[in-house]
Design brief:
Blueprint lengths: L1 H14 L76
Length: 91
């Protein structure tokens, strides 16, 4: 009985490390839906805000469209192909 319990427990732990991970970036992220808000205006009876203290944010240059199903840009590309042999360094 104990062996069965340990086998089930080991299987549960091992299955937690696998699975399917969606690595595509087809859906827009929440931050991509952000819009510019209006400038803060101080009431007349308060000291006005210094326009030189604001940090200008330049317009972003649009990136070329990515094909559907491509992985996200923050995932590094594979540098080894299947079948490549990794040899330990001889330093």
């Amino acid at each position: 009985m104990r062996k069965i319990g340990l086998t089930v427990l080991a299987t549960l732990f091992a299955s937690g490390c696998g699975g399917t991970i969606d690595l595509s970036c087809d859906e827009p992220m929440l931050y991509q839906q952000a819009v510019e808000s209006p400038r803060v205006v101080a009431p007349d009876d308060l000291t006005q805000l210094d326009e030189m203290a604001e940090m200008p944010i330049p317009e972003a240059a649009p990136a070329p469209p990515r094909e559907p199903g491509q992985p996200c840009l923050d995932i590094p590309p594979r540098y080894l192909q299947e079948g490549d042999v990794v040899r330990p360094s001889t330093i």
